Amino acid sequence: TEPYTYKIKDMDGEEVQGSFYEQEMVKYDNEFYEIEKILKLNKNKMLVKWKGYETPSWINKKDIVENVKPNERLC
Fold first, then answer.
1. Judging by DSSP bridges, how do beta strands 45-50 and 57-60 pair with one another?
2. Which of 4, 23, 27, 35 is 20 to 30 A from 52 via CA?
3. CB-based burial of residue 48 (10 Å sphere; 0-12 exposed, 13-18 middle, 19+ buried)?
């Protein structure tokens, strides 16, 4: 029947409880960008130089997703 509803999974592959209408869903960019160097730090933000990009930018520390091997450090 219309309107259609959708079952979705979270980023860990777990099914999200409930079903959703198309207009309730938002497409987003799922890309990650690699930090080449952390240039400055303050309480909640950091100025980072992105690998492959010229211009650094300020980002919230909470937005960092660490993907490091054991015994390897970000900075």
1. antiparallel
2. 27
3. buried
State pLDDT tens for residues 36-69. Answer: 999 999 999 999 999 999 999 999 988 887 764 4
Tell me the residue range of the domain where 46 lies: 5-63
Answer yes or no: is 48 within a domain: yes
> Token pair of 67, please?
């993907």
Whole-structure pTM value: 0.49
Question: At 49, which helix (H) or strand (E)?
Answer: strand 45-50
Answer whether residue 22 is part of any domain. Answer: yes
pLDDT at 73 over 60: no
Helices (DSSP H) in 1-75: which residue ranges? none
